[in-house]
C-alpha cells in the first residue's frame, strides 16, 4: 500500500492503477481499496475500470454517500457543474476535510472541460491556499497553468507549468503542456522536453506529433517528415496529424501532397479552422486562384464564427 | 505591435482544433545568451566616427504614450555628390504636458576617413520645421541630380529640397507646402518610386493611428503599472499615395488609387515583384493585413495581399508588422518579401512563387529557430559576407517597458543564408556578429551602407534614447564583390529596376528598391557578393520602364557607375 500511496502522491495514476489491481487480486474484499481504485481510475479518465470498482465497493456494502460523491465528482470532472459553486464553498469552509483535494481537482478540471477557465483558476487558487505539497501541489499548479493558457495568459501559464514541474518533475502531462506551448515560441527549448517524453514512452502520438511540429519550426523538415509518415500510417484519420502533414508538405513546396490531406481533415471536421486556412494556402500554391479565394472566404467565415460564438466545451486537461 | 486579437484568435484555434499554434507565448526566462565563438563580422566604430547622436522619444515625461513607441530611422545617402555616403537622423521630440515638441534632426557629412562632421546647421537641417519626427525617405524628386529628403512624424511631413547653398556646398530648404504635402496626421514610413513611368518619383506615405492627447487612453501591464497602449486601442489612419506632377508638386491620388483605409502602417518598400517592369508597393501594417499593391500601369493598383499570400502569416493571422525588405534570397530571380514582427510572431519570409503568389516559408527557412521573444523593427537583406547569398539583419527592441515574458532591451540578430537540407535557410550567427550583437538594445531604425567605400556593407542602427551605433563590416575578406551606382537617364527615378549578374554558373539578382527597413533609407548602390569567384560574367540591367542593357568584362572588387543607356565608367 505504501507503493500505491507513493504513486498517488506523484500522481502517477497509471502506475497506481496497476498497483491497486495487483493489491485487489490478493484481497478482493477490501471495500476501501476498491473505492480508492475507483477514484484513481476516474481521475485517470478510465471510466469502465472506475465503474467496475465502484460496483464492487457497493457490493461490499460500501458507504452510500461515498458512492454518490464519487459519481458527483465524475460528473463534475467531465464538465457537468451542477452544484459546483456549493461544492467550492464547502471546500472553502472545510479546508481540512480529506475529501477536499479530490473535490477541488474534479471541479477545477470540470471548469476547464466546461470552457470556464476563470472559474478553474479560482478553484485552483482555493486548492493552493491549502498549501498542498508534492504531487498534489504540482497538479494544482498544472491546472492553474492550464486555466491561464486557455485564457491566453501565456506568461502566467508558463510560470505555473514550470513551478509545477519543480514540485513534481515526473508530472509528464505538465511537461507535455509546457512543450506544446513552447513549440512555436521557442522550439529549441521545446525539443528536449519532447525528447524526454519520448524516452519515457508517454502519450506517443501527442509527443511524436509535438516533435514533428518542433522539427518543422526548426526548419528540419526531413526529420519531421519521418515522424509524420509513421503517424499517418498508424492514424490515418487523426485530423491533427493530417493537418501537420499538410503543413509540412506546403513547407516542402509539395502542395499537391497537402491537398488530399487537408480535404480529408475537413471531411472529418468541416469547420476545422486550421485545415481550412491551410487549404486556402495550398490552393494558392497550386495556382488555383479562384478556388483559393473561395476557400479563403470559407476560412474567414469560420474565423468570424469563432469570434461570435462562445467557446465550446474544452477537451479534458 | 498587435496584442489582444492575436491572443483571442489563438485561443479560438486552440479550442477549435486542439492545436496550440497561434498563441503569443512570451518567455518567462531571460533571453538566451548568444554563442560568442567565431570571428566578428561587424566592429562598433561609433566612437571614432564623430557621430554622437541619440533619438529622443520623450520618455522623460513618463506619459507612456504610443507616440513614444515608434522611434526614429536613419537615411544613408550622398547629399553632396562627393561619392561618399552621408547620414541623416530624425531627432524625435519631447512631451511637455499636452504639448508635443520636436527635437532637432541631424545630418552628418562623410569626410572620407572614417570621420563624419555634423553639418546640420550649415545645410539648413537644423533650422527646418520643428516637429516630432520618426522616419525619412530619400529621392531626387525634382530630377535635378541631387537627392532630397522627406522627413515624417507626428501630424506632418517635411520635404527638404537639396539645393546649392549660396555660401558654398549644399543646403536643404523646406518645400513641403509648395509641394502640396500638407496632411496633418501621424506619418511613419514613406517610400519613393516612379509608379507611372514618367521618370519622377511618386510617394507613398504610411500613416499610423489616431492617437492624440485628446484620444489617449491609459493602459497598464499585468502588474497594473502604466505602459504603452496597443494599437488596437486606436483607429487606423488612411495612408496616402501622391503622384509627382513633375513641377515640384504632388497630387494626392489616394482615392482614385483605391488605397485600403484600414492599415496601421509602419513599413513600406517599393520593388517590382512580378517582373513586369513596373514597381509595386508592399506595406507592413501593425495589427492588420499587410498590403501588396500590384502596379497595373496608368497609376492604377490592385491590392492583392490576401490572395497573393503576403497579408498574413502561415496560420492566416495578421501580425504586428514593422520593418520590410525584398530580395532574391534563394536564387529564383524573384524578390521574396520579408517582414519583422511583434513578440510571439515569427518574422515573415514570403517566398516569391511567380510574382503573383507567395509562400510563407519562415519555418522551412529556419527562421523559427530564433524563437519569438523579439519585437523586430529595422531590417535588411544584406550579403554581409559576400558569399553571393543575401543574409538578414534585424534590429530588435520591445515597445512595452515591462513586457510579459520578454525584455525591453533585446539583442539584434544576424541571420546567415546557408544551405541546409538542399534549400536556402537562415542561421543566426549569434556572437559572431561582434560585440554589438552580444548586448541588448532598444533598436528601431537600420540602414546598410558602404560608409568607407571598401566594398563591404556597414550598418547604422538607431535606438530609443540611446546613441546611434555605426558598425563597420569586418567580415573575413575571402570573398569578392562588385558595386554599382546606377543613374537613370536625365536623373529619372529607377526604382523597380532589376539587375542580373552571371557569376560562376549562377545568376545573382538584385533589385533597385524604394523605402525598405523601418523609417530608414539604405545606401542606394547595388552590392553583389561574388564568393570566391574571381571572374564576372554578363551583367544585365532591366531598367524600370526601360530597355535591358548588358555589360561585359567587368572586374571584381570594383565599383562602377552606370548611366542608363551609356557605357561603363570605371572608378
Can you characterise this structure?
The complex is a heterodimer of chains A (317) and B (571). With 317 residues, chain A is mainly α. Chain A has 18 helices and no strands. Mean pLDDT of chain A is 92; it is low at 312-317. Chain B has 571 residues and is mainly beta. Chain B has four helices and 41 strands. Mean pLDDT of chain B is 92; it is low at 1-31. At the A-B interface, helix 10, helix 11, helix 12, helix 15 and helix 17 of A face helix 1 and helix 4 of B.
List keywords for this structure.
heterodimer, A: 317 residues, disordered C terminus, B: 571 residues, 5-stranded antiparallel beta sheet, 4 helices, 5% helix
N- to C-terminal distance of chain B: 45 Å
Mean pLDDT of chain A: 92
Oligomeric state of this protein: heterodimer
How much of the residues of chain A is beta strand, in percent?
under 5%
Total of DSSP H or I helical runs spanning 4+ residues of chain B: 4
Low-pLDDT residue intervals, each spanning 5 or more residues of chain B: 1-31
Distance between the termini of chain A: 28 Å
Radius of gyration of chain B: 22 Å
Q: Give a count of the beta strands of chain B, DSSP E runs of length 2 or more.
A: 41
In what range is the share of β-strand residues of chain B? Answer: 35-45%
Q: Main interface pair?
A: A-B, 62 and 53 residues
Short description:
The complex is a heterodimer of chains A (317) and B (571). With 317 residues, chain A is mostly helical. Chain A has helices at 2-9, 13-26, 31-43, 47-59, 64-77, 84-93, 100-113, 117-129, 134-150, 154-167, 172-185, 187-199, 204-217, 221-234, 239-251, 255-268, 273-285, 289-308.
Amino acid at each position: 500500500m505504501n507503493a500505491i500511496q507513493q504513486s498517488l502522491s506523484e500522481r502517477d495514476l497509471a502506475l497506481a492503477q496497476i498497483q491497486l489491481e495487483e493489491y485487489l487480486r490478493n484481497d478482493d474484499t477490501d471495500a476501501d481499496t476498491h473505492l480508492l481504485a475507483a477514484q484513481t481510475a476516474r481521475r485517470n479518465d478510465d471510466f469502465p475500470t472506475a465503474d467496475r470498482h465502484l460496483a464492487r465497493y457497493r457490493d461490499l456494502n460500501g458507504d452510500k454517500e461515498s458512492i454518490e460523491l464519487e459519481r458527483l465528482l465524475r460528473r463534475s470532472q467531465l464538465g457537468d457543474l451542477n452544484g459546483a459553486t456549493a461544492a467550492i464553498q464547502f471546500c472553502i469552509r472545510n479546508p481540512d476535510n480529506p475529501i477536499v483535494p479530490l473535490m477541488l481537482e474534479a471541479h477545477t478540471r470540470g471548469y476547464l472541460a466546461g470552457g470556464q477557465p476563470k472559474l478553474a483558476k479560482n478553484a485552483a487558487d482555493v486548492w493552493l491556499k491549502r498549501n498542498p505539497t508534492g504531487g498534489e501541489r504540482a497538479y494544482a499548479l498544472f491546472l492553474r497553468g492550464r486555466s491561464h493558457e486557455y485564457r491566453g495568459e501565456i506568461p502566467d501559464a508558463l510560470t505555473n507549468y514550470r513551478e509545477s514541474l519543480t514540485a513534481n518533475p515526473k508530472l509528464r502531462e505538465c511537461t507535455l503542456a509546457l512543450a506544446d506551448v513552447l513549440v512555436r515560441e521557442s522550439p529549441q527549448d521545446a525539443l528536449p522536453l519532447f525528447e524526454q517524453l519520448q524516452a519515457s514512452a508517454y502519450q506517443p502520438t501527442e509527443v511524436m506529433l509535438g516533435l514533428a511540429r518542433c522539427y518543422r519550426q526548426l526548419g528540419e523538415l526531413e526529420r519531421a517528415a519521418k515522424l509524420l509518415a509513421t503517424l499517418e500510417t498508424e492514424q490515418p484519420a487523426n485530423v491533427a496529424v493530417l493537418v501537420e502533414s499538410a503543413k509540412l508538405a506546403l513547407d516542402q513546396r509539395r502542395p499537391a501532397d497537402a491537398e488530399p490531406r487537408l480535404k480529408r481533415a475537413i471531411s472529418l471536421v468541416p469547420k476545422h479552422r486550421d485545415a481550412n486556412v491551410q487549404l486556402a494556402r495550398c490552393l494558392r500554391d497550386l495556382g488555383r486562384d479562384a478556388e483559393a479565394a473561395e476557400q479563403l472566404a470559407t476560412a474567414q467565415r469560420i474565423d468570424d464564427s469563432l469570434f461570435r460564438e462562445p467557446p465550446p466545451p474544452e477537451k479534458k486537461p | 505591435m498587435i496584442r489582444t486579437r492575436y491572443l483571442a484568435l489563438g485561443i479560438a484555434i486552440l479550442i477549435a482544433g486542439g492545436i496550440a499554434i497561434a498563441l503569443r507565448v512570451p518567455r518567462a526566462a531571460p533571453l538566451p545568451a548568444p554563442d560568442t565563438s567565431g570571428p566578428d563580422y561587424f566592429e562598433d566604430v561609433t566612437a571614432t566616427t564623430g557621430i554622437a547622436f541619440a533619438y529622443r522619444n520623450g520618455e522623460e515625461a513618463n506619459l507612456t504614450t504610443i507616440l513614444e513607441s515608434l522611434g526614429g530611422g536613419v537615411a544613408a545617402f550622398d547629399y553632396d555628390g562627393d561619392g561618399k555616403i552621408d547620414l541623416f537622423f530624425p531627432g524625435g521630440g519631447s512631451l511637455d504636458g499636452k504639448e508635443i515638441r520636436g527635437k532637432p534632426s541631424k545630418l552628418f557629412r562623410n569626410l572620407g576617413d572614417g570621420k563624419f562632421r555634423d553639418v546640420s546647421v550649415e545645410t539648413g537641417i537644423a533650422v527646418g520645421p520643428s516637429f516630432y519626427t520618426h522616419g525619412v525617405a530619400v529621392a531626387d524628386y525634382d530630377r535635378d541630380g541631387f537627392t532630397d529628403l522627406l522627413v515624417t512624424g507626428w501630424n506632418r511631413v517635411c520635404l527638404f529640397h537639396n539645393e546649392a547653398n549660396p555660401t558654398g556646398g549644399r543646403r536643404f530648404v523646406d518645400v513641403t507646402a509648395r509641394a502640396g504635402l500638407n496632411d496633418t496626421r501621424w506619418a511613419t514610413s514613406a517610400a519613393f518610386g516612379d509608379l507611372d513611368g514618367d521618370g519622377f518619383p511618386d510617394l507613398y506615405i504610411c500613416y499610423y493611428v489616431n492617437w492624440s492627447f485628446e484620444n489617449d487612453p491609459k493602459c497598464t501591464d499585468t502588474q497594473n503599472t502604466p505602459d504603452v497602449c496597443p494599437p488596437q486601442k486606436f483607429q487606423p489612419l488612411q495612408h496616402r499615395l501622391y503622384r509627382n506632377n513633375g513641377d515640384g508638386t504632388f497630387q494626392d491620388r489616394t482615392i482614385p488609387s483605391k488605397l485600403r483605409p484600414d492599415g496601421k502602417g509602419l513599413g513600406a518598400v517599393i520593388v517590382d515583384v512580378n517582373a513586369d517592369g513596373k514597381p509595386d508597393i508592399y506595406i507592413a501594417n501593425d495589427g492588420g493585413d499587410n498590403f501588396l499593391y500590384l502596379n497595373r500601369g496608368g497609376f492604377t493598383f490592385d491590392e492583392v495581399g490576401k490572395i497573393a499570400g503576403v497579408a498574413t502569416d502561415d496560420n492566416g493571422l495578421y501580425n504586428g508588422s514593422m520593418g520590410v525588405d525584398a530580395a532574391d534570397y534563394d536564387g529564383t530571380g524573384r524578390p521574396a518579401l520579408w517582414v519583422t514582427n511583434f513578440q510571439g510572431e515569427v518574422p515573415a519570409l514570403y517566398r516569391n512563387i511567380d510574382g503573383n503568389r507567395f509562400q510563407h516559408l519562415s519555418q522551412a527557412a529556419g527562421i523559427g529557430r530564433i524563437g519569438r521573444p523579439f519585437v523586430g523593427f529595422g531590417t535588411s537583406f544584406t550579403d554581409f559576407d559576400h558569399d553571393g547569398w543575401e543574409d538578414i539583419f534585424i534590429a530588435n527592441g520591445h515597445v512595452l517597458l515591462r513586457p510579459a515574458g520578454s525584455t525591453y532591451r533585446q539583442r539584434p540578430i544576424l541571420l546567415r543564408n546557408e544551405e541546409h537540407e538542399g534549400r536556402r535557410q537562415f542561421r543566426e550567427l549569434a556572437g559572431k556578429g561582434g560585440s554589438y550583437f552580444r548586448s541588448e538594445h532598444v533598436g528601431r531604425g537600420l540602414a546598410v551602407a558602404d560608409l568607407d567605400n571598401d566594398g563591404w556593407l556597414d550598418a547604422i542602427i538607431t535606438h530609443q534614447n540611446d546613441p546611434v551605433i555605426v558598425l563597420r563590416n569586418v567580415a573575413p575578406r575571402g570573398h569578392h564583390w562588385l558595386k554599382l551606382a546606377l543613374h537613370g537617364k536625365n536623373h529619372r527615378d529607377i526604382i523597380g529596376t532589376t539587375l542580373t549578374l552571371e557569376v560562376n554558373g549562377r545568376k545573382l539578382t538584385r533589385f533597385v528598391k524604394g523605402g525598405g527597413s523601418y523609417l530608414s533609407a539604405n545606401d542606394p548602390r547595388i552590392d553583389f557578393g561574388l564568393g570566391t569567384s574571381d571572374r564576372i560574367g554578363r551583367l544585365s540591367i532591366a531598367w524600370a520602364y526601360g530597355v535591358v542593357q548588358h555589360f561585359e568584362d567587368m572586374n571584381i572588387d570594383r565599383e562602377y557607375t552606370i548611366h542608363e543607356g551609356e557605357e561603363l565608367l570605371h572608378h
